[in-house]
Amino acid sequence: MRYTILTLFPALIRPWTEESILQRAIERGLISVDVRDIRDYAEGKHRVVDDTPYGGGAGMVMRVDVVVRAIEAALPADEVILLSPAGKPFNQRMAEELARKDHLVLVAGRYEGIDARIEHFITREVSIGDYVLMGGEVAALAILEATARLIPGVIKEAQSHQQDSFSTGLLDYPHYTRPPEFRGLGVPEILISGHHAKIAEWRRKQALKRTRERRPELLEVAELTPQDLAWLDEFDAGSE
Q: Which residue numbers delimit the tRNA methyltransferase TRMD/TRM10-type domain (predicted)?
């Protein structure tokens, strides 16, 4: 997988790729991350990338001609994604879809955003939440991490991401490790029983319980088995 990240602040992105799992994935050739400065595609002595908006208003707007030159220099690509609070919400299903692509171009805006004509030069707008950041760099990094970890070989445990929150449509079940007791708090006995079928059942029930308590709206679209529905009825009846 190739990633090209277009930003006015490359120094915000590059350190993220020089540590931990992303660094190892790059070194092994599983992914490549090309971070480009949009300012390099501006013309003139001062390389101006923004201007005042037509019609007036506070703030500055990034120029469409500069950003499009940066995008076109990165092509061909499977997707050109503009990170924007007006975009479609990013979720695990979108991450799985994007992880199957060969080349993603991620465009991180700044200031009051990019000239609206940019819509004609991208494939989609994506938002990571209903809030406004100072720029799209954090959103670009979120997409980078969420998709890169799904690429075969990036994560050591091949099935790890299949059990993550949202991958199954539910929140993840709770995890425990050493010490077996900490300040009076123990590990559920079932997890040290060695009974794998019972452990799997307990984990599924816990995932359902967590989801019902914390994100009940996910249950409306999750793929639930008859047994799942029976357990949910038990929870509602107070016999969990």
A: 1-220
- What phi and psi, each to the nearest 5 degrees, are found at residue 170? -120, 165
Strand positions, DSSP E, the chain: 2-7, 32-37, 50-51, 61-62, 79-89, 103-108, 124-127, 181-182, 185-186
Kindly state the average pLDDT of the residues 69-89: 97
Q: What is the pLDDT of residues 97-107, one digit of tens each?
A: 999 999 999 99
Instruction: Find the catalytic residue in 40, 79, 112, 201.
Output: 112
Q: Is the Cβ–Cβ distance between 207 and 171 less than 8 Å?
A: yes
**Catalytic status, residue 220:** no
Over 80: is that where the pLDDT of 168 sits? Answer: no
117, containing H or E segment:
none
Which one, of 120, 113, 159, 103, lies nearest residue 139 by Cα? 113
Tokens 């090309």 — which residue?
34
240 annotated active-site:
no
Contact 218, 211 (CB under 8 A): yes
> Is 201 annotated as catalytic?
no
Tell me the domains of the chain and their CATH numbers: 2-148 (3.40.1280.10), 165-237 (1.10.1270.20)
